[in-house]
Automatic annotation (TrEMBL), chain A:
UniProt source species: Marinovum algicola
Protein name as it appears in the record: Spermidine/putrescine transport system substrate-binding protein
Presence of keyword Signal: yes
Keywords associated with the record: Signal
Entry annotated with the keyword Signal: yes
Pfam short name (any one): SBP_bac_8
From TrEMBL, chain B:
Family indicated by similarity: Belongs to the binding-protein-dependent transport system permease family. CysTW subfamily.
Database matches in SUPFAM superfamilies: MetI-like
Record field: transmembrane: 62-86, 369-391, 398-415, 453-474, 506-525, 552-573
A GO cellular component annotation in the UniProt record: plasma membrane
ABC transmembrane type-1 domain sequence ranges: 365-573
Pfam families associated with the record: BPD_transp_1 (PF00528)
InterPro entries named in the record: MetI-like, MetI-like_sf
Highest classification ranks of the organism: Bacteria, Pseudomonadati, Pseudomonadota, Alphaproteobacteria, Rhodobacterales
Protein name according to UniProt: Spermidine/putrescine transport system permease protein
GO terms under biological process: transmembrane transport
CDD domains referenced in this protein's UniProt entry, alphabetically: TM_PBP2
Membrane association type: Multi-pass membrane protein
Location(s) in or outside the cell: Cell membrane
Chief site of localization: membrane
Amino acid sequence: MKRTKLLLATSVLTAVGGISFAASHSEMEACEDCANDMTLVSWGGAYQASQTKAYAEPYMEMFPEVSVAWDESSAEAVAKLRAMNEAGNVTWDLVDVVASDAIRLCDEGLAMEIDPDEDLAAAPDGTSAEDDFGDLLVSDCFIPQIVYSTTFGYRTDLVPDGVEPPSDICSVFDLETYPGKRSLEKRPINNMEWALLCDGVAKEDVYDVLETDEGQEQALAKLDTIKDQVVWWSAGADTPQLLADGEVFMGSTYNGRLFSVIEEQDQPVAMMWDAQVFDLDGWIIPEGLPEDRLNRVKHFVKFATDTQRLADQAKYISYGPARESSAPLVGQHAELGIEMGPHMPTDPANATNTFLYNYEWWADYRDDIDAKFQAWLAQ
Amino acid sequence: MSDLKSTGPQTMDAPTPEDALHEAKALNAEDHRDASGRLVTADGRSLKSSLNRALRLQKARAMMLIAPLLIFVLVTFIAPIASMLFRSVENEIVANTLPLTTDRLESWDATQGELPPEAVFQDLFFDLFLAAEAKEHTKLGTRLNYESTGVSSLFRQSGRRLDDIGEAYQDPLEDLNEAWKEGAVWFELMSGQGQTSDGVVTNQIDRFNKLTSSNLRGDIGFAPSEEIAALLPKTTRAYTAWAVFTVFEDEDVVAAEDPWEAVYAALALDLQSPGAADRIAAYDGPQAELLQEAAANLEILPEADFTAAFLDIDEDWGDINRWETFQVYSPKYTDGYFLNSVDLQKTPDGFEARPENERIYITLFQRTIFMSLVITGSCILLGYPVAWILANLPTRTANLLMILVLLPFWTSLLVRTSAWKVMLQQQGVINDVLVWLGLVGDGSRLVMINNQFGTIVAMTHILLPFMILPMYSVMQTIQPSYLRAAKSLGATNWTAFWRVYFPQSVPGIGAGSILVFILSIGYYITPEIVGGTKGVFISNRIAYHISSSLNWGLAAALGTILFVVVLVLYWAYDKIVGIDNVKLG
C-alpha cells in the first residue's frame, strides 16, 4: 500500500519533471523515416522504473507519436536474442544487458556494432562521446549506461558486542570474529576473486593465479572454509530478503539493492564497500532490425544516453552514470530527497579499494571454472 | 453380469467368434471362389483385397478427422523438440567456418608432438580472414571454448590482427606498382580471357552460404578465366571469395572495389610457388605485364611464414592441445556433447573420464531420480488418506474439501515456493514456533531450506494435487459394499482394507505416481529457489546451459538423456506394474 502511494507520488513528480525536460530539450531534431513503436528490454523492478522515468517518459513527452513497450527479459536476453535471430524475427529494438553479455552478443553477431562518435551525443562541453565514456566502452556493440557494483551489506544489529563493524572484505571469511551466515552468488564470478584476495594474493595477480588449476583450487579451498555457512543466491532480490529477515549476517548483491534495503526500507543494514567489484550495464541494439525501426532506436539512444539523461537516472536508483560528464550533475533522490552522491559506488569515499572485473578473461574461463565451481558446490 | 461373460462364451446364446468360424466354413462349401481357389466377393474381386480396401478407406477417414490435431502437434511440438535435440550431435559450425583448415588438418597426426605444417596455417589465415569479415569467427570461438578454455579470446584477438598479416604483402606490391591499388586493374587481371571457370564461383557462393547460414544465389558479375584459375589458384580462390562477399554482404560492384589484404597474401603465395615465374612469363592475358613485373621482383615480398605470423599474434597458436581440439571437433557430427553430459571427455583416441573436480552430471542425474522417487513416495503417503476421505464423504462436503485441494493450483507457483521460504527458513514461522515452544534452542534453529529437505517439502506440496486427483477418481468407483461384505465375512478392518480396498485403488496410485514422477524429474524453478546446492536437479543445469552459458548442444544432450531415462523408467514400470493397471478415473 505504502509502495503504491510512493509510486503514484513519483509518477506525478516525473510528469512535472518531464515537462521541464521537454522545454529544455526542444532542440532535439525529429526523427525521419522512423517507426513509432519501440520494444525496450530491461530488468524490471526499480531499475526499469528508473529508466522509464529518466529516458522513456521525457522522450515520449517530446515525441508523443512514439509508444514504448517494455519487456522484462534482460536476464534471458542472450538466449532469447539467439533464438529470435535463428527464427529470423527480431522483435526487440533495444536491449539492456550487463557488459559481459554485451560482449557475448557481439561475439555471436547478435548485436550491432556502434560508432560512439556518430551514434551517441557528445558531452555539453564538446567532449566526444568516445572520450566521455572512455574505458567503459568495453565492446564494439556496447553503449554503457551505469556503473554498478557487487558488494556486501551486513546486519548492524548482529555485529558481536565489542567488535568493530566489518570494513574489510576478508571479514567475509572470518567466521571467528563475525559469526553467522553469509550469502554469496551461486556462480564463480566475484567469489573466486574475493577468495584469492583474502588468501594472500595481490590484487594485480588475481587473474594470473586464477588462470592455473592450482589457483582455482586455492580459491575453492578458501571458499571451503565458509562453505557450510553460505546461503547461495541466484536472484538479485535474495540477499536483500535474507538480510531483512535476519537469515544471514552479511551478503553480496548489487549496491542499488542494498541502497533500497537501507534507505527505502529502513532496515538495520549497512554497506561494506571494500573490494567492491565494478561492473557495467548498458544498451545493445540487436542485429538485423529493419531500416525504420533502426532509425527510431538510434534516435532514442542518442537522447537516452546523453549527459543529462544519465545523470537523471541516478535520481531514482543508486547506480553511477557511465559518462564522466554526468557525474557532477548527479543530485538528490527524487522521493527521499537525500543526496545520491555518497551512495554511488564511484564516490571516492566508497571507492577506496575497488576491484576491476576482467571481462575478456571471464569470457574465456567462464565455462571451465563454472564446471569446477558447480562440481565443488555439489560435493 | 460381466463376471458371467468371462466364464466361457460357448455357454452363451449370443454370437461368438466360433459362430463366425462356422459360417466361414459354410461359405467355403459354396462356390464363392475364383480359379486359384481364393475367396471372392460378388463383383469378382478377392475378398482379402476388398476387405483391405474398405479398411483403408475407414482408416483414411479417421486420419482426416484427427489430421488437424496431428499436424498441429507435429509442427508446434514434435518438430521444435526434435530440432532442439538434434543440436546435441550437430557440429557443422567448425567445418563451415574453417573448411580448408579442417580438410587439411585431417591428415595431421597429433601424437607426433609437432605443430601442424605451414600449409595448415596458410589455410587457417584465409578461412579465418573470411570468417572475421563475416563476423562469424567469434561464434566458432565461443563454440570451441566449451571444449578448450581460451579459444574464445584467441579467435577474437586474432580476428582483429589478420589484416596485419595481409598488409605485409600488400604494401610492397603497392609500392612496386601503384596499379595494385586499383580495383579495376584487379578485376581485369582476375577476369582474364577466354573460357571462364564458373565452378570456382559456385564453390565460393556455397561456402559463403554455409558460413553465414544464408541461401543466396545469383550472378556476382565476376568469373575468373580458366587460364587465371590454373595460373594463380590461391589468388583466384581468395579473390572470388572476396567478390562473393562484396556482392552479397556489402552489396557493392566487384570491379569498383579494392580487394582485401588476404587477396594480396594469396597472390604472394602464388608468385612464390615453385615454377610460377616460368608460367607467368608465358602468360599473355590482360594485365600480364603487371603480373610479370611482380614475378620478376619476388625479393620485395617477405618470405611466407604464416606459422610465425600466427604465433606472433598469440603464442597459444603454438599449443598442440588446441590443434588437437580443432581436429577432434572437425567432423560435422560429434558425440562430444553426450560424452560431456556423462562426465567424459573426447580425446583424439576415443574418450576418457573428466578430472574428478569437474564431474557433476552423473551425480545430478542420480540425485534427480532419487529425489523424484522420494517426492513421489511422500505424495502417495500424504495423498492417499486425503483421497480416501474425499471419496468417502457425502458429495457436498467432499466438494468443499476438493476446493481446498485445488486451491494451491490457482496460486502462482512462485508464490507457493516463496511461501515455503518464509515457513522453512531459520528465522521463519516453523522455527519461531519451535523456539517459542522450547523444543529447540534459539541458537540451534533447524536448517530446513536450501537443502534437499526444502526441495522435497516444497515439491511434495506443489505436486500433491496431481496425486490426489487420480486417486480420488479411482476410489470413487470402488463400491463401499465390497468393504461391508468383507467385514460381514469376518475380516478385520485392516484385512478388509488391505485385501479388498487397497488392490482396487492401485490403478489410481499408479496414475498419480507416473504424473508426479515425470513432472518432478523435469522441475527446475522450485529446486532453484529452495534447493540450495544439494537440492538442485539436472534440469537446473539444463536451464543454465540454455540461458546463461549458451551451450545449447550440451543442454540438448542432457535433455535427450533425461528423456531417455524417463522412457526407460516408464518401460520398467510397464513391465513391473503393467500400464493397463493405470487409471485416471
